[in-house]
Design the sequence.
């Protein structure tokens, strides 16, 4: 058997048929990003790697407006930074106010508790955001929490939290602010320094349209200062160690996922070539609007509270009697991979991801098919 | 600026000139592996991903002879599993016997201590392996340790520890055996069940010749059983959570590095097509011998104790008056990226990695140039 046959065998496993991806992530990557993934490897202790790491870090810092905060790249999924935030910047046994608007807020609670800290929970109904006055009230009731966690964009419900306002409230109470921006960074604006975010993290495989395997974050000086007095931070997610390697050699303590870093660099340069952050975010905003309009034109309802729609994923209520999973399966048969409903609203929702490499023509095709599928399922 | 220009810009950062790689890792990847890295992405909750994960896991389990143990793939570098072994299977405050024969044994000590456990150290001089009778003696003196850590192949000194014999001793003392096989798996034989290894882990970017970003391990039932009673295991490296996701859906709790898993699958199929594990390990053994012979033919000395030579990296003593880093720099000027000396022996050694995509012709060219470089440097 030769190499081409082996490649075809494996391709048949992962791509048995062509699918247009409207997933919650990993998302379809831009063609140039996929080309960049196949660059030959090299040592992460070489000066070439240092140049790559430095350039990528600086470009990302500019994109998320982190001049004071330190941008870190780590070999992990986004959840790695969730764990890092708690192990580095919350005292063992200490309290964290975890705001929950869906499945990923709930994950933060699990991370807090499984690392021996206590979670105080502010939970909203699925589809609703956290409002600044609610956070203020919760912090007044719980003045002893050390930090607040916020899901910027909740992938399970399609809700974008009002992050700048929430961060402002948390800062008024002098709390550290940890932000899960996994499905937000790259599509929803982030101004790390101005908004006072202490740790805001994301993953490569979402709005930047890079394959999975890399997590990125901006970390404030306050987190590093606090970490100095936190015992048992561990090795793998020790943020002080990451900072040391960054300052010493523009690298990471253990081997980084070089292909994904190269790919992210290509995306950040593409953004620059497109005209910068605003042009890129506008592209996402237009795409999200086109998708929401498509949903409404079919007579379907959006799940999220108006005014808090996600720029990266739209959650749709199914018509009475139609199951979300049936819409998913029927669309798959027609060559479209949307995302199933998730968590408690799984049964009667489905999700349309907007991230990565998606053309307007594909969106139009999606809705043409979705219309037929919904009609079929209603008649059953 | 178009996409091709952007790709060329980035390529100029990471590959400003062509280099033949004899690195300690990441290593040069086989051409078919690089092609596999550029497959389009897809959801890790799809049935296609499940098929990929299952197939890769089963092939790796066969390669390392893990029928009883569970093979896990995680989004991390190898060190992630180092941390996982301690957090999941050693009681907080409990003791671990850490055997150290170089820099990576020392890393295991750091991981133990930074996670709030106590390290009892058995340390050998650089270049020497741990001998079974030494381990036996250390365990007699420290009957209260819960586990023993062993670096199978020490990348900093080029020494392969006698793993089966060491594991046998540890098992006679009824201890858990954790093995750092990062630079061994794929080139040195591993028989997980037969040797009684409780957690043996590696990284994608070493002897399998896949880009970095993926860690693989086999984990024994004893580790999972012990984990059930260990508090504060955390979320990201909670091995019980990984096991649950594997059993429930052939996937991982958070998003896996799909390109590296595809690439590993391609390598495992290539190994099968070559005739299986023995043929692949023989290729590495022949390559290692060719490189050691090349070193000796130049009148240079090997750093490792005879009988314990690494199959993946050869550490070479420089002649009197010649610095390791000068050899590295001169070879780089000639288009060869070897590895600098590492740790306490950095000054008067250099290292030649044998892993990944290297042809016999490149090895011959390496030594032709190395000969000239050594002569130049001696005359200085």
Sequence:
């Amino acid at each position: 058997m030769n190499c081409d046959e082996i490649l075809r065998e494996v391709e048949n496993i992962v791509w048995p048929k062509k699918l247009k991806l409207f997933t919650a992530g990993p998302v379809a990557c831009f063609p140039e990003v996929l080309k960049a993934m196949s660059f030959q490897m090299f040592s992460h202790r070489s000066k070439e790697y240092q140049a790559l790491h430095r350039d990528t870090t600086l470009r990302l810092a500019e994109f998320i407006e982190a001049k004071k905060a330190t941008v870190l790249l780590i070999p992990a999924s986004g959840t790695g930074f969730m764990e890092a935030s708690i192990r580095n910047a919350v005292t063992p046994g200490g309290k964290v106010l975890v705001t929950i608007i869906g499945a990923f807020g709930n994950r933060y609670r699990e991370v807090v508790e499984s690392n021996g800290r206590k979670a105080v929970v502010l939970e909203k109904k699925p589809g609703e955001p956290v409002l600044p006055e609610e956070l203020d009230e919760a912090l007044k009731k719980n003045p002893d929490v050390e930090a607040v966690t916020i899901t910027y964009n909740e992938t399970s419900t399609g809700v974008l939290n009002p992050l700048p306002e929430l961060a402002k409230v948390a800062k008024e109470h002098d709390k550290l602010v940890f932000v899960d921006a996994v499905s937000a960074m790259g599509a929803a604006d982030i101004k790390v320094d101005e908004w006072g975010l202490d740790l805001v993290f994301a993953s490569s495989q979402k709005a930047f349209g890079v394959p999975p395997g890399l997590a990125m974050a901006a970390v404030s000086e306050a987190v590093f200062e606090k970490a100095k007095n936190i015992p048992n931070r561990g090795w793998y997610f020790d943020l002080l160690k990451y900072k040391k390697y960054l300052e010493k050699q523009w690298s990471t303590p253990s081997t980084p996922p070089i292909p994904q870093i190269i790919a992210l660099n290509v995306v950040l340069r593409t953004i620059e070539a497109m005209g910068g952050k605003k042009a890129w975010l506008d592209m996402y905003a237009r795409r999200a609007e086109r998708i929401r309009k498509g949903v409404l034109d079919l007579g379907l309802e959006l799940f999220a509270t108006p005014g808090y729609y996600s720029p990266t994923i739209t959650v749709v209520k199914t018509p009475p009697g139609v199951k979300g999973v049936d819409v998913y399966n029927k669309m798959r048969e027609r060559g479209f991979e949307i995302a199933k409903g998730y968590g408690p609203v799984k049964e009667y929702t489905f999700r349309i991801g907007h991230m990565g490499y998606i053309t307007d023509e594909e969106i139009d095709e999606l809705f043409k098919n979705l219309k037929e599928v919904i009609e079929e399922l209603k008649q059953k």
User: Anything to note?
Assistant: The two ends of chain B are 48 Å apart (CA to CA).
